[in-house]
Amino acid sequence: MENLNPHVVFLPFPAQGHVKPLLKLAELLSHAGFQVTFINTQYIHRRLLLSIDVDAFQRRFPNFHFLSIPDGLPPHHPRSLEYLLPSIGSATLAALRRLLVSDLLNRTATCIIADGIMPSSAVTAGEEFRIPVLAFRTFSACCTWTNFHLSKLIEEGEVPVQDKDMDKLVTCIPGLENVLRRRDLPSICRVQKAGDPILEFFIKEAKAMLGASALILNTFDELEAPMVSKLTSFFSKIYTIGPLHAISNVRINDDRSHLASTTGILWREDRDCITWLDSQPLESVVFVSFGSIVSFAHDQMLEFCHGLVNSGNPFLWVIRPDSIIVEDGDSGQLLMDLQERTKGKGLIVSWAPQEQVLAHRAVGGFLTHGGWNSIMESTHAGVPMICCPVISDQQVNSRFVSEVWRVGLDMKDRYERSVVEQMVRDLMEAKRDEIMTMMDGVAEQARESVKQGGSSYRNLQILIQDIKSMTT
Ligand code: UDP
Any idea which fold 7-143+186-258+449-470 has? Predict the structure, then answer.
């Protein structure tokens, strides 16, 4: 007989852009009646407690449990990727094994939904304990497909990317022959030598992902069908359930009245910026946010600052406390300098309620680093983008935004003030009509996909059914 209460264990990578979408999916499954165990690293768990009232959360999701595990680094150590990647895999595997034999999980898990950036620990534990693993890759389908070709890119001599070859087209990724130049490959391809440890990490984890029984993507079919179709050569089951932040507000179970989600945000939001936006003219404001990880030197920040001010558009600019790279000096002083220079022209905040900002009537454009959550959120809100990619998948995403979907511009590798100014003017005036025609169409598809009967909505229902059937 079917056990109606499956138990899903979530294992996100410890970063904002990963915890947020996995937490959204976990809430949706909890609403569907599943038992959920959400495993964060201790460091992330402490930060999440700043935005979640755990008691209220527990009342709303009585079958939802948070657990926390070590990430392998001492408590006060910096947690950038270079430090985290060497330690996290083995620390996670050891912790998972302990949990799976303890009373906390005690072999009750129906399946593990593991972050696709680092699935190897879950795949190994899943094999040992005979628990199916589903990989949730929080990247776009186009970057996920690209990442599966890292070894081939090295074999063909296209990676490591040399400065002189940046504009050559990449030839060895099927389906992308006329799309990607070498400068559009993920930033890990810009290394000195093929054996680079971070590049090796991504190659190893992409291989490990093939041990998952299915792939979950925060994208929608109407946007990425060609790439999703390519990925079916690796996975017999793919669930495209994006834009996930918007699907959270959709009823998914007839016997439940509504869904509302927590944000899964690791910073304190400055909500006063919404009042400031209320006072700005329709579609006049450029929202500037580079996500949760990317940071810039002060000189680079000055280029953005001059470019934005010179464009003449009002702007709302997120500068996190750790956004400015400081060698020797005081980031507070540098921030004050930027605030002084932008006084009366724009507003600087340390963290914004981004989904709400993008949905605001005053926002007409988004200067973004091109993180995948940001692109999904902007697409759903119908806000055209200027992408200035820095790391990871952002190079691939920005190429697709400008050349494939044509819903924005790509500022890749050209961050001088004159380029910033010109691109903002193009987005807000000269090229606006042409870009908005494309964006309106894509936004409509995004909104339809998460409505009842839409593609992502249906795929979420299928995912729920498939997990239920694992308990029979
Ligand atoms: N975000 C936010 N407020 C901010 C900046 C970012 O809420 O001021 C959220 C944003 O909505 C997105 C996430 O942080 O969901 C960033 O994820 P993304 O994949 O865009 O970039 P990453 O941080 O992983 O580089």
Answer: Rossmann fold (3.40.50)
